[in-house]
């Protein structure tokens, strides 16, 4: 089983972009990744007995607004901690499927559009590894508990029954599960992914995005399937998704 942990960025008013990110992990690797974050916590907060919930935006907040126990660190230490978490993502066998949507470029709800993109691409990924490697794996989606829960539950049921916009889904084991991010380290990693992608498209802060770029899902031919950029003016965008679209026509226009 492959599990896609989903987290979003850009729901606040005033954000031009909305990002939904899927952090995809083979079931046997989940424990290893959770431990890697536990070890980072032990390094920065030896003796701290509760779970320190890693949340990228909170770690980057102005010093006075940083939540405990992270407010015990200097800004430099917090930035180092953020970098350590991205290193865990980079060193992992995980893959990323993410959608960056300029809100003004679409009609309707960006969360719904993003969710449909992720479901279809996750399904495509599972079908591809079966064709390429003979691995017959199912997929499960775990979503950070959010105000969109009701909305998403309805949409997930509809997708399960009728398929998504481009066809049926074949490889998902069940409807999505919802979990509070504080309860799983894997959703915290998904949060760092969505934050890096949001930073790239909303504000042009590309350093974390560039670091995790090799983890975007791609096939054996090097074609990226794990990054979708929806915007009004993509002709002048030089992100990996738009650069590739200019060279090779998309599967799902
Ligand atoms: Zn782009």
In N-to-C order, the SSE pattern is: EEHHHEHEHEHHEH
Supply the CATH class: Alpha Beta
Instruction: Supply the helix-strand structural class.
Output: alpha/beta
Largest sheet: 6 strands, mixed
**Percentage of residues in DSSP E strands:** 15-25%
CATH topology: Nucleotidyltransferase, domain 5
Low-confidence stretches: none
Explain what the structure shows.
- This protein is 43% helix and 15% strand.
- With 253 residues, the protein is of the alpha/beta class.
- It has a single domain, classed as Nucleotidyltransferase, domain 5 (2-Layer Sandwich), CATH 3.30.420.
- Helix 4 crosses helix 5.
- The longest helix has 24 residues.
- The protein is globular and about 50 Å long.
- The relative contact order is 0.19.
- The site of zinc ion (ZN) has 6 residues, from helix 8.
Entry keywords:
alpha/beta; Nucleotidyltransferase, domain 5; 8 helices; globular; 6 strands; 253 residues; binds zinc ion
Blueprint (SSEs and pairs):
Elements: E1 2-9, E2 17-26, H1 30-44, H2 56-60, H3 75-91, E3 95-102, H4 110-133, E4 139-144, H5 149-162, E5 177-179, H6 185-203, H7 207-212, E6 227-230, H8 240-247
Parallel strand pairs: 1-4, 3-6, 4-5
Antiparallel strand pairs: 1-2, 2-3
Helix pairs in contact: 1-3, 4-5
Zinc ion binds at residues 229, 234, 237, 239, 241-242.
Give a brief outline of the structure.
This protein has 253 residues and is an alpha/beta fold. The chain has eight helices and six strands.
């Amino acid at each position: 089983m492959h599990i896609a942990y989903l987290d979003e960025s850009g729901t606040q008013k005033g954000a031009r972009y909305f990002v939904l990110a899927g952090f995809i992990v083979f079931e046997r690797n989940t424990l290893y990744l959770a431990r890697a974050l536990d070890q980072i916590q032990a390094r920065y907060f030896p003796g701290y007995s509760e779970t320190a919930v890693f949340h990228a935006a909170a770690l980057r907040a102005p010093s006075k607004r940083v939540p405990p126990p992270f407010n015990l660190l200097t800004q430099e230490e917090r930035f180092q901690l953020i970098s350590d978490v991205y290193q865990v993502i980079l060193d992992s066998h995980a893959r990323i499927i993410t959608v960056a949507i300029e809100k003004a470029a679409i009609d309707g709800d960006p969360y719904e559009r993003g969710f449909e993109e992720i479901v279809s691409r996750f399904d495509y990924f599972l079908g591809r590894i079966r064709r390429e490697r003979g691995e017959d794996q199912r997929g499960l989606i775990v979503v950070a508990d959010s105000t969109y829960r009701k909305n998403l539950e309805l949409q997930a049921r509809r997708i399960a029954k009728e398929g998504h916009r481009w066809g049926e889904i074949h490889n998902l084991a069940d409807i999505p599960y919802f979990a509070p991010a504080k309860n799983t380290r894997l959703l915290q990693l998904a949060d760092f992914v969505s934050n890096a992608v949001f930073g790239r498209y909303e504000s042009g802060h590309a350093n974390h995005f560039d670091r995790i770029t090799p983890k975007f899902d791609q096939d054996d031919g090097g074609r990226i399937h794990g990054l979708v950029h929806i915007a009004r003016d993509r002709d002048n965008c030089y992100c990996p998704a738009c650069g590739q679209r200019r060279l090779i026509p998309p599967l799902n226009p």
